[in-house]
Write a structure and sequence with these properties.
Layout (H helix, E strand, L loop, with lengths): L1 E4 L5 H9 L7 H17 L1 H12 L12 H8 L4 H19 L6 E5 L2 E9 L2 E5 L8 H14 L3 E5 L9 H10 L3 E3 L3 H10 L9 E3 L4 H10 L4 E2 L7 E6 L5 H12 L6 E6 L2 H15 L5 H11 L1 E4 L3 H11 L3 E5 L15 E4 L5 H6 L25 E9 L1 H18 L2 H11 L1
Parallel strand pairs: 1-11, 4-5, 4-7, 5-6, 7-8, 9-10, 9-12, 10-11, 12-13
Antiparallel strand pairs: 2-3, 3-14
Helix pairs in contact: 2-3, 2-8, 2-9, 3-8, 4-7, 5-6, 5-7, 6-7, 8-9, 10-11, 15-16
Amino acid sequence: MKVIASTDRAFKQMVKRVASRSTLHGGEVENTAKTILKAVERGGDSAVIRYTKKFDRVTLKPAQFRISPEQVKEAYYQIRKEEGDALRFAAQRIMAFHERQRTKTWMYQDNGATLGQVVMPLDAVGLYVPGGKAVYPSSVLMCAIPAKVAGVKRVVMCTPMAKGGISPYLLVAADIAGVDEIYRIGGVQAIGAMAYGTKTIGRVDKIVGPGNMYVATAKRLLYGTVDIDMVAGPSELLVIADEAANPIHVAADLLCEAEHDEEARVCLVTTSARLAKDVVRQVGEQMQRLSRQKIVAKSIGRHAVAFVVGTMEEAIDLANEIAAEHLALSVDRPFDYLEKVRHAGALFLGRYTPPAVADYVAGPNHVLPTGGTARFFSALSFDDYVKKSNIVAYSKEELLKVKDHVARMAQMEGFDAHAKSLESRLS
């Protein structure tokens, strides 16, 4: 893990490198995704079968795509009671948070006009759950529960088969969250099936959830055919720590994020050179005791960096420039800096708020913008599962009051038919 002070020559270059990461993939990744999507659009189930056999080494018939209710019930017997309790506890917390985000249809009277918005749920949403180096029942809860809070009638989940089949944790989480259909297919072919629809899998209006670079690219390519939540990249954590921060805790948080993936990005920004040195030492020591040590070591070796700056203001400015997915403030009086943070997917305030608590049970969504897109994207929320249509209703009397203004604006834009559409009602 590199340590770079703001006085070092390489400081600006390293900041630029960290801040300029991207979630976009072109070249071979995009070409492969395009090929598979086109095949699924044209071939439907047969293309899904072909690519599932090629990539997952599983041969399925269309009738085998969907997980049966009996298989879901069986999954409960394959996990421990306390594991089911933890999933239900997390689900309750996630639901409570997202219910507070709920917005309803609203209208108001503006003299003789009625104006407002009608808020309605999407008809169908597709949830992608990866099945690679880890199992993510938490992502099932985070993606499906807000959909049900919003009133989405049909929530579809696709996840690839791993060795031994689908994880019972995923099936139980899906059942707790209210997922309506579960399919044992993954990869780009699953994204295409949900977007275009096949004989077996009905199309959806939006696709949410994390995935590898091929899945993320497929979602990006399909934006417009369906809506998507965001184009997500590797996990990220930036910790701002003052001299009083505990290096053991800071290192543990950095490793928590690094164990997601070899490409995960972790960064420390501190006003204390001594703390930076202590954190680096702790990262090395704690890493040796982790079950995913090889993954963590690659992430730390490739991407981890500690920046030493002069003031907390510099630290906040640096965090805003990087716009990390997760931003932890391990400092005194963290709420004093809340309004100064402009760009972060989620904020974790105080020394007893490890990001891991929000990954699972705090309640706010853990599907967050990465790759610097926290500058303009938001966390997954209730709003992602609804659409809003404006309401406009005028009386004849109110239309008379505004017709001259409409006519003048229409004249500015050269649209005389606009003005005449009012005149035809009022002449």
